[in-house]
Amino acid sequence: AAALGVGRLRLAPADLPWLQPGRGAEVLVAGDVIGWIGEVHPLASGSYECAGTVTAFELQSTPLLKAAREARGFTELPRYPGVKVDLALVVPQDVTAERVEREVRQAGGRTLAEVRLFDVYEGEGMGAGRKSLAFSLLYREEDRTLTDQEVAQTHERLVRKVSAAVGGEARS
Fold first, then answer.
1. Between the CA of residue 121 and those of 83, 130, 158, 169, what are the distances in Å?
2. From 53, 61, 134, 156, which residue has the greatest number of CB atoms within 10 Å?
3. Beta bridge partners of 40
């Protein structure tokens, strides 16, 4: 999708009979379902003698190509360095990573250059009905180098806003 210049793909939870319950999603582009992705149900993968977890996906090429952009914009390489900060939030189980990312981007404003989810943890120590989502954030200004104090203040404000918006708390 990225190579075709398609905007963000969106995933929406879906229960499909050949996928493990709670482990499947529909793939959407511009609100239209163009496929699915998920963990194959053990009964289905077992009939093919697959050992371990099997993940599969299917995408329709026609709508994907229709959403592609021919003209690509050019962005100059940044002149000033960015500052990477990791953020782990403990949120209710039903809060999606997509929602948290949207809140992070909104709270980060123009100083937040990149957001990337790199871990989801749902194990011991989270409490009932909670999970941890970890993001890598890159703060950068186009016209100058940010100071440590500016990054710390911006990050603290972002954490407060996002935590309040999703009912979460920063994980230390």
1. 25, 9, 21, 14
2. 134
3. 19
d(CA 127, CA 93): 10
d(CA 101, CA 34): 22
Exposed/middle/buried for residue 155 (C-beta within 10 Å: 0-12, 13-18, 19+): buried
Token pair for residue 130? 């909670």
Tell me the pTM.
Answer: 0.72
The model's confidence at residue 72, banded by pLDDT at 50, 70 and 90, is low
Query: DSSP label at 158?
Result: H
Q: Is the predicted pLDDT of residue 70 greater than 80, yes or no?
A: no
pLDDT over 70, % of the chain: 98
